Amino acid sequence: MRFDIVTIFPEFFGALDVSLLGKARQAGVIEVGLHDLRDFTHDRHRTVDDTPYGGGAGMVMKPEPWGEALDSVVREDSVIVVPSPAGHPFTQREARELSTREHLVFACGRYEGIDQRVIDHYADRNEVREISLGDYVLNGGEVAAMAIIEAVGRLVPGVVGNPASLTEESHEDGLLEYPSYTKPALWRERAVPAVLLSGHHGAVAQWRHEQQLERTRRVRPDLLSPDLLSTDGSGEST
Ligand SMILES: Nc1cc(-c2cccs2)n[nH]1
């Protein structure tokens, strides 16, 4: 999989050189291209924004630099991801879906967004996804793009050493994850739940599923649907 990122702050993505994604890049499992939007301007001040038609506060990003920048990276099979507070909510399901695609292009807008004609132009040619991380406003798309790239990149085969660790995570099965414990068995007079020390794998699986249900009911009742309310660890309705 290849990620191409268009931004006025390419240095922001230095974090993609380290940790898991950095190793995956070195191994050639994923590729990342960084592109400075200002390299696609032609005036002395490398202008990327201007005042909004119709008035109003703030600045809008000009279409010309975006058109030249995206034309330089977009392929026929590219999915163009535009982080935006006006986008649809990003989910683990969408992360899994995007992890199966060959080429993601991130258009990181600043200010009051990108001239709408850019989105409309590429939506005629490519799949364009305006994605929100949540109902709050960031200064730009870079933080959102980094989060999406990490959520998607870690699901690409070969990035995470032990793929089994990807299956027992919050949201993977529609539920929040169960609480985890490690040594020591007693810490500040707090013991580990006895079932986890029992060696009884069936009982452990049952307890963990019950913990997932309890935590999801308490913290995220919105995630629960009737079929997820089964009480055994199998995921089958009871
Ligand atoms: N969820 C979310 C995305 C954003 C922005 C993307 C680009 C500029 S601001 N804010 N909040």
Automatic annotation (TrEMBL):
Protein name as annotated? tRNA (guanine-N(1)-)-methyltransferase
What domain of life does the native source organism fall in?
Answer: Bacteria
What gene is behind this protein?
Answer: trmD
Record domain tRNA methyltransferase TRMD/TRM10-type: where: 1-224
Q: Tell me if Cytoplasm is a UniProt keyword of this record.
A: yes
**What compartments host this protein?**
Cytoplasm
**HAMAP family from the UniProt entry:** TrmD
Question: Lineage, please?
Answer: Bacteria, Bacillati, Actinomycetota, Actinomycetes, Micrococcales
Native source organism of the sequence: Microcella pacifica
Q: Which residues does the annotated region (Disordered) include?
A: 218-238
GO process annotations (BP): tRNA N1-guanine methylation
Q: CDD domains given for it?
A: TrmD-like (cd18080)
Protein family membership? Belongs to the RNA methyltransferase TrmD family.
